[in-house]
UniProtKB/TrEMBL annotation:
Stored InterPro entries: DIOX_N, IPNS-like_FE2OG_OXY, IPNS-like_sf, Iron_ascorbate_oxido_reductase, Oxoglu/Fe-dep_dioxygenase_dom
EC nos: 1.14.11.13
Family stated for the protein in its record: Belongs to the iron/ascorbate-dependent oxidoreductase family. GA2OX subfamily.
Name the UniProt record assigns to this protein: gibberellin 2beta-dioxygenase
Biological source species: Liquidambar formosana (Formosan gum)
Amino acid sequence: MDSDPPLEESYKNFFKKEDFIKELETETETASKKKSFIVDEYELPLIDLNRLNLGGSEPEECKREIADASSQWGFFQVVNHGVSQDVLVRMRCEQVKLFLQPFHKKANDKFLNLSTDSYRWGTPNATSLMQFSWSEAFHIPLSNMFGSGTFSSLSSTIEEYSIIISELAQRIAEILAENLGCKSTFFAENCLPSSCYLRMNRYPPCPIPFEVFGLVPHTDSDFLTILHQDQIGGLQLVKDGKWICIKPNPEALIINIGDLFQAWSNGIYKSAGHRVVTNREVERMSVAYFFCPSYDTVIQSCIEPSIYREFSFREYRQQVQEDVKTTGNKVGLPRFLR
């Protein structure tokens, strides 16, 4: 398709090198590699947020479940989250229309009137196939919405969606802060809509699904991520030291803890490693909302003694970018241990 980024062609040196290596592998080694992509399927803890509005003990029990999932899993899913099915369907339709645009248009710096790096595909800093992501994405800062024009309906839908999702993120963050006995207003003061962003992801069909990831293993560098995904599946995370596959739930949004919340909570809430595996036959799409502070916000544990030193979000992002550029991998929070 002329809408697909030229992933295989642009990274052909990786594929040629890997083909040569593959010829030297034994059948056992090859089977082991494939096995690493095939893991058991689990359902994430499912939390009905409507319970926060009920009487009796329901609200406190619901809050405790959110905190428990954040510390034990680093991931959970929510229903009755406030985002209507109509908005979710429109977001998906607009996303599909966007990714169907010809590749040369998507790669144009002036497309959508966003920053020059808003459209991203592949992994420019990868040094091997295992560091390479078979995907394309639009990174959309909510401080820089594109207005009228060809994609005005996309812009208005994103604006409607992000308002509701921002409120949900604030509510979850406040619950997690209160559970620690910490200042819950921190997030309202520092994580404004203008500092957050959306990332619309597309994972095209991949001819070598056991050789390359849709999205390489990583942790998120924000406080919270709220994910709306389709029903194809492919999201995997680390639980108790092993990779597990997350069963899609058409009614739920997925919420995961990011690095900043792990540092802010002094390691009580876990930023779990996760990845996306590829599919040979069908594409997968998702929309992720990243709940971020301003770059100048200082991240300091609300619990002492802290296992992490103080750092600004700007410093953290710069360190992550430097590590990825020089090594091909994100190091993340271990860089900031005391």
